[in-house]
Amino acid sequence: MTRPALFRQLLAAALTMASVLQAASLTSADWPAWRGPTRDGLAAPGQNPPTEWSETQNILWKVPLPGRGHSSPTVVGECIYLATADPVKRAQSVLCLDRQTGKLVWQTEVHAANAETGKHANSTAASSTVACDGERLFINFLNGGAVHTSALDLSGKLLWQRKVCDFIAHQGFASSPVLHAGLVLVSADHRGGGVIAGLSQKTGEPIWSVSRPKVANYTTPAIVQAAGRTQAVLAGVNLLTSLDPLTGKKLWEIDGSTEECVVTMVTDGERVFASGGYPKNHTLAVLADGSGKVAWQNPARVYVPSMIAKAGHLFAVMDAGVAVCWKSDTGEELWKERLGGDFFASPVMVDDRIYASNVNGKTFVFTATPKEFKLLAQNQLGEEAFASPVICGGRIYLRVALKSESRKEYLYCVGALGK
């Protein structure tokens, strides 16, 4: 990586961190939204969380969770926030747990009935991850044929609720709210014609809205610092799209990617990276300057787990359980290693280690540098894992399920005992 390119990447990371940690009560020890403090799967450095654990090793606490959901934990201050849905009542709720003990602090029912899961067997009615600005919580739910965004205060009181758009459910809905400069960005792509909207964090009033093609899609927008400006980027509906996150103005858009995408895009400061899996497998890098130039592309299937860009390299765990490292500027493959199992959860990287959980509840920990892949550990908890791992404050939070009798979800806190 050239010195100017490295400088741009470091500047982009700093600007992104400053934007996300906008409230004084948020720190790098928190995990305030989908994909973490910098919204790209990179945990704060220097934490040194455990690499090995089991039901009897390095478990600080384990608590049962009501209902079902694939929402990843959101950790802010002394609280953990999760979305969940009751499959019998068809209710959708936000949970607040004590960070130190896992004890339930409160549960707010956001929708009392009419929750929708979609048609995919693995979909849930609570797959969106809570976002927190330090003062309020935000959550997206598909309910009663429409996508709604709701805001709660930190005591669980519902502050406002806004219908974003009607929604024709196909596989399901999982897009998480994205916070930026006083706005909540929400994407709701579907076969009836979706929208991307920017809502006021304080009131829920729409500030801007952009119509989308009539195509099913599942991705969460990403706020990136790329090519010298702040961009909201997302893939899918056969497009790669960049918007001004403050106004919704289209910065650039090109034909590309695939019809359906799930991953949240990432950047190296010059390029943005997208991948899709229907109707074809496709991973690509596009210059973020609006030129429309595709830097490289390949047929790798990185459909559901989001990728990680770091120091001029792109790391991914494919759906079929293969870890890979590419050079971010050229797409040159530096290594590829099989982990095992199918993956829906997105990996998390702390320093030079990646933590990646497969569908069967096994979390692989491996050293990931441009030079080598080195498997450090394989750790089993539960029998099913769709929620992505969260690493903050030196601890790992894992939402898993046991299926042996009646399916039951648990949240584990993994950490070194005595710390």
Account of the 3D structure:
The protein contains 1 helix and 32 strands. The chain is mainly β and 419 residues long. β19 and β20 form a beta hairpin. It is globular.
Distance between the termini: 38 Å
pLDDT averaged over residues = 93
> Globular, elongated, flat, extended or rod-shaped: what is the shape?
globular
* Overall radius of gyration: 19 Å
**Global structural class:** mainly beta
% residues in beta strands:
35-45%
Q: Bin the helical content.
A: under 10%
Give the topology, please.
Layout: H1 3-20, E1 59-65, E2 74-76, E3 79-86, E4 91-98, E5 104-111, E6 131-132, E7 136-143, E8 146-153, E9 158-166, E10 178-180, E11 183-188, E12 195-200, E13 206-211, E14 222-226, E15 229-236, E16 239-243, E17 250-255, E18 266-267, E19 271-276, E20 282-287, E21 294-298, E22 308-310, E23 313-317, E24 322-327, E25 333-338, E26 348-350, E27 353-357, E28 362-368, E29 373-380, E30 390-392, E31 395-402, E32 408-414
Keywords:
419 residues, mainly beta, four-stranded antiparallel beta sheet, 1 helix, globular
